[in-house]
Input
Amino acid sequence: MYVCLCNGHRERDIVEIARTGVRCARRAYDILGGQPQCGQCLTFAQTLIDDFHGESSAGAASAHTPSAATA
Ligand code: FES
Output
């Protein structure tokens, strides 16, 4: 299933990146070779990553912003 239509990223691509230890959807996109365009997919991509790591996606958006990550 496609997660990101703008970049052609599939669910399996995102999960495979999560398997390497990545916990941020934007970082996953960096590694996969595309930047978010419309951004419609980011919440779902982050949920896939959080689910892989066994984390709740509640509040995930704020937890994965660059400013929150360095606090
Ligand atoms: S669907 Fe992923 S950036 Fe548009």
Remarks:
- The domain at 2-62 is CATH 1.10.10.1100 (Arc Repressor Mutant, subunit A).
- The helical segments are 11-19, 25-32, 42-52, 60-63, 66-69.
- Residues 59-71 have pLDDT under 50 and may be disordered.
- The pocket of FE2/S2 (inorganic) cluster is lined by residues 4-7, 36-41 (CB under 6 Å).
